[in-house]
Amino acid sequence: MNPKSFFIAITCAAVLDGCNSVPPELHVMSFNIWGGGGTSVALTASVISGSGADIVGIQEPNRGNSNSAEYIADSLGWYSYSGKNSGCGTIISRYAVTDTSKLGYGVKIRVDARHSVWMFNIHLYYCPYEPYQLGGIEYCGAPLLATAEEAIASAWTTRSPQVTAVVEDIQQARQDEIPVFLTGDFNEPSFLDWTERAATAGMHRMTVMWPSTKAFTEQAGMADSYRAVFPNEIENPGYTWTPRPATKEIHDRIDFVLYSGILPIAAKIAGENSTLSDIRFENYPSDHRAVVSTFKWHE
Fold it and tell me: CA 61 to CA 135: how far, in whole Å?
């Protein structure tokens, strides 16, 4: 080997562990940490580190005037980005943040010298929460609902400004032709869950084509990693709301890791020590279970 070739080989090995290497599996997490850390910021940090996540979209990062997500990122030696738009939350990553999206809902993250991804995070508006209104549960002064059409209209009126903005931001980012992720607490179920089959099985009151997940799928080209891995909504409901006990409650899947341009190979629910969680923690600190999805490049 001549000296020049030797130098190139050594440089590639040092930077990429081989010029043609594919990065290891990427673990992406969506985590509503409940008012800046729920029952404990330290326990919240333990959930993140114990989940094996590489990139985390965090909703409700703030406690008072402090951002617990940024504090957790610093403690892990990670990078962080707090969106300036309402509902962006904070993105933390073990890999470097190199750019921000046009509207500020996401960041570009450099996984290695050859691979980058776009990561978006959103916390959609919580009130009204239509599953409660359909289920006869009074919540935030919103009227009760009787039909799927009423629920869809209410959900779209409530969340469409945020959804439309994020769709536009994702569409712009997808021009880079690299993988894109969207994490979030949507405060709205998935149209893939409230199906006719699920209604017949008694899991939901009716079929509802929930508009936010539908818009992200049809307009932004995003797919649902949990449903890609577990397509049967009856066998694997994947409930993220809620691990906290209540007298009257409707359990549902409202936290998501959506993706495009990359292959999902696993999806897990992180939460309390119960059969509803795949990754289990004692004294789980949040009122939402988290979602952790694993991906690999198509190469």
Answer: 29
Is position 3 within any domain? no
pTM of this prediction exceeds 0.85: yes
Number of domains in the chain: 1
Residue 292 lies in a domain: yes
Amino acid letter at 31? Answer: F
Measure Cα distances from 299 to 23, 46, 165 in Å.
10, 33, 31
The confidence score (pLDDT) of residue 212 equals: 98
Residue type, 292: V
Query: Is 2 part of any domain?
Result: no
* 140: containing domain: 27-296
pLDDT tens profile 32-47: 999 999 999 999 999 9
Determine the length of the chain: 299
pLDDT of 275 higher than 80 = yes
Nearest CA to 224 out of 276, 270, 198, 186 is that of 186
C-alpha span between 68 and 163 (Å, rounded): 25
